[in-house]
Amino acid sequence: MMLRRKLYLGALLGAILFLMIAAHTIQKTSFVFATNIQSHNEVRKNLLKNHTITEPKKHRSCSCASCIVDSGVSQWFDQRYNSKQKTYLSGRDDDIDSLSLKWWLSLQASDGTIKDIMQTMFKVIPPPPEDETLRQNQCRKCAVVGNSGNLLNSKFGALIDSHTTVFRMNKAVTVGFEEDVGNKTTHHFMYPESAIDVRPGVHLVLLPFKLKDMQWLSSALSTGEIKMTYMRVKNLVAADKDKASVMVVNPSFFKYIHDQWTERHGRYPSTGMVAIIFALHLCDEVSVFGYGADKQGNWHHYWENNRYAGAFRKTGVHNADFETEVIQKLSTEGKIKLYR
């Protein structure tokens, strides 16, 4: 009896001892496992701390705060803008596509062939340099200055002159109006009937509305033999013809503006409309001055008091009202800054 009781107590003590050892082993294993998890988390945290995750840089077309050609900002703009469109003639055989050429030749009748006339023209002027295109590491800020009377007393002169590039057009006058329109000019748009002399260093930009206009350019920079188109014109023009400063807007560019921007309103786009779209293709930021009527609703040039100056709006050649809507839309979409 005594022996049986001793055996029972021994078995009980053995069971208790076994349970104590087992509990200690489980606790130790849990500690090691938890330590491993903690060590792994610390390693991962250190790796993340030492390795900064950077988002890939978004491609930008210029170094300005905002760039005109960046897509995704305005669906309306993206549907119309074609960055591959050639803005000016370079003397290459493929400068003008056949459809655009046919349309352009139909605007105003002229004698001669485009090939012969262009060959003659590029003997008088050298092809413009290729660096007129946009570059990613630059911020080219341009001012397009119209001739509206709304520039009077605007005091925009200093602001206009602060731009990298300043486009003016036709018979624009700066002398005596510097406080309102500035004095700087880098590009001057004209056609035979609106031609003036340009200062050294200024690009003469010809708007050829007909073949005769290219013939006139060759003559005006050399012999001066052409004195008439459909009216008497300036037969000689002062310009830096030997410094690749003369540019001729591509007829295909006219067609592109007519189809995509003015949506075939009017027979063809106006000088002012061409100048703005031209700037959109050569510049990263565009500011527009001197477009539209003055505060009294009159359409006239800032240097003259001509109550008939707005008559062109009713000719049907250009649709000034629709062009005004397009310009306003460009401003609303954030593609130009419109000053009035």
From TrEMBL:
Tell me what this protein is called: CMP-N-acetylneuraminate-beta-galactosamide-alpha-2,3-sialyltransferase 2
- What are the record keywords, sorted? Disulfide bond, Glycoprotein, Glycosyltransferase, Golgi apparatus, Lipid metabolism, Membrane, Secreted, Signal-anchor, Transferase, Transmembrane, Transmembrane helix
Per the record, its GO cellular-component terms are:
extracellular region; Golgi cisterna membrane
What topology in the membrane does the UniProt record assign? Single-pass type II membrane protein
Task: Name the GO terms of the biological process aspect.
Answer: lipid metabolic process; sialylation
Give the residues the record marks as binding substrate.
Q108, N147, N170, Y230, Y268, G272, G292, H301, H318
Subcellular localization(s) per the UniProt record: Golgi apparatus, Golgi stack membrane; Secreted
The biological pathway it contributes to is: Glycolipid biosynthesis; Protein modification; protein glycosylation
Q: Name one GO molecular function term.
A: beta-galactoside (CMP) alpha-2,3-sialyltransferase activity
Q: Which cysteines are joined by disulfide bonds?
A: C142-C283
Q: What is its EC number?
A: 2.4.3.2, 2.4.3.4
Q: Per the record, what are the reactions this protein catalyses?
A: a ganglioside GA1 (d18:1(4E)) + CMP-N-acetyl-beta-neuraminate = a ganglioside GM1b (d18:1(4E)) + CMP + H(+); ganglioside GM1 (d18:1(4E)/18:0) + CMP-N-acetyl-beta-neuraminate = ganglioside GD1a (18:1(4E)/18:0) + CMP + H(+); a beta-D-galactosyl-(1->3)-N-acetyl-alpha-D-galactosaminyl derivative + CMP-N-acetyl-beta-neuraminate = an N-acetyl-alpha-neuraminyl-(2->3)-beta-D-galactosyl-(1->3)-N-acetyl-alpha-D-galactosaminyl derivative + CMP + H(+); a globoside GalGb4Cer + CMP-N-acetyl-beta-neuraminate = a globoside MSGG + CMP + H(+)
Family according to the record: Belongs to the glycosyltransferase 29 family.
Pfam families, per the entry? Glyco_transf_29 (PF00777)
Task: Provide the primary localization.
Answer: Golgi
Give the quaternary structure. Homodimer; disulfide-linked. Homodimer formation occurs in the endoplasmic reticulum.
